[in-house]
Amino acid sequence: MNNNVAAEAGSIFPIGKIWKTIDQKFVKVPPDGLLAHFFLALVGTAGILYINIIPILIGGLVDELAFTKQQAGYVASANLYGASLGAFLAVFLVKRISWQKLVSCMLVVLIVFDTLSALLTSAEPLIAFRFFAGVVGGMITSTGFSAIARTANPERGFGFLMVVQYFLGGVGMLLLPGVVDRFGHEVLFYTLAAFSCITLITMPFHEREAIIHRSDSAAPSQSLLSLLKVPTVLLTMLAIIFFQSSFMGLFTYLERMGIFYDLSRDWVNFSLAMSSWVGIPSSIVMIYLATRFTRKYPLLISIAVAFFGFALCYFSNNAVYYLVACILVGGTWGFALPYLFGISAELDKTGQLAVVASISSKFGLATGPLVSATIIANDNYDHVITLAIIGITASVLAMLYPVFILDSKNKPAH
C-alpha cells in the first residue's frame, strides 16, 4: 500500500525523474578542480549572502522603512537564528539525500522567500519571514560546507569560499546603497534571489555522488554524539561561536557607526567595500599558506591584528581611522575563519562535523547582532566594540588547545 502511494506521489511530483534528466545532459566538472571549488563556494554563499551585505540591509530598513536600529538588528538576527536551525536539520539529511538534489530544491524555496520578503514593510512579519528564509538558507549553506569538508584540501576550499563571499560583499557594499536610495530596500531581497538563481544554474555541473576525495576518507567514522564529547571538538565549536558573534556583532553596525559620526555616505560605503575586498587577498594568502607553517602562528598573528582593528573602532569619528578599522576587521575575518573551519574538517573526515561547525558559525553570527541590538541604547557604539573585544578574547582562549594539539600531530605541508 505504501509503495503504491509513493509511486503515485512520484508520478505527480516527479522530482527525481526531472533531476535525472537534467543531470544527464550536463558535463561534470573535475571534483577537486578550481571550477568545482568555485561552484561549491556559490553553494556555501547562497544561503547566507545577506551576511555580506548586512550593514546595508540594516541601513535600508532604518532609512527606507523607518525601523528602529533594534528592530533592524532583530531582523538580521532572526534570519541568522533560522539559519542555525536549518544547519541543524541538515545534519539529519546530509547523509540520506543527494546533496545536489537537496540544495537545488532548497534554492527554489529560498528564491520564493527572498522575493516575497521585498513586499513586507512591517517589522514583526519581516522578522518571522526572515527566520523561515534563514532555515532554508542554513540547510543550503551547511550542505555546501559538508561537501567542501570532503574535498581533498578543505582549508583551501573554505579559503576559496571566503574569496567569493568577500568579492560579492565588496561589490554589494559599494553599489547597493545607491541603488537602494533610488529604487528602495526591495532591491536587496531581489539581489539575494538573483544570486540563488545563478547558483541553481550551476548545480547540474556537480558530480552526482557526494564528494569524498580525501585520501583518508576510508577511515572508520565516529558517531556525531561521540565526536561532540571530544574536548578538542567542543572547544573548536566554542571558538567558532565566539569568533563569529564578535565579528558580526561589530560588523552589523559599522555602517550606522560611520553615519553617527557624521562621516560622508560615500566614505562609509567605500570603507565597507574595502572591508570586504581586503578579505580577498587575505583569503588568498590563507589558501597559499594553509597548513604550511602550522596553524598557530597565522591564527594568533591575525587575531592580534583583529584586536587592533576592533580597538580602532573607538575612534571612528576620524575618517582615516574608520577606514583602517574596516580594513583590519574584514581582512582578519577572511584570513582566520577558514582555519577554524579547517580544524573542524581535520577532526572528522566524514564531513558531519563540518555541518556542526556551520551550525556553530550561524549561531554565533545570529547572537552577535542580537546582543548588539539589545545594548546599543542611545547610539552608544562603544558598548558594541567592547563586547566584540571580549568575545574575540574568549575565542582565542577556546581555540588554543585544539590548534596546538593538531599542530603537534601533523607536520606542516610544504
What report would you give on this structure?
Helices cover 78% and strands 0% of the residues. With 414 residues, the chain is mainly alpha-helical. The chain has one domain: Up-down Bundle (Growth Hormone, Chain: A). The protein is globular. Mean pLDDT is 81; it is low at 5-13 and 210-220.
**What is the subunit organization of this protein?**
single chain
User: Could you tell me the number of beta strands?
Assistant: 0
Low-confidence parts: 5-13, 210-220
> Hey, roughly how much beta strand do the residues contain?
under 5%
Which secondary-structure class do the elements indicate? mainly alpha
How far is it from the N-terminal to the C-terminal residue, by CA? 60 Å
Percent of residues in helices comes to over 70%
CATH superfamily: MFS general substrate transporter like domains
CATH architecture heading: Up-down Bundle
Tell me the Rg in angstroms.
21 Å
Number of domains: 1
Indicate the CATH topology: Growth Hormone, Chain: A
Please describe the biggest sheet, giving its number of strands, its sense, and whether it closes into a barrel: none
Count of separate DSSP helical elements: 19
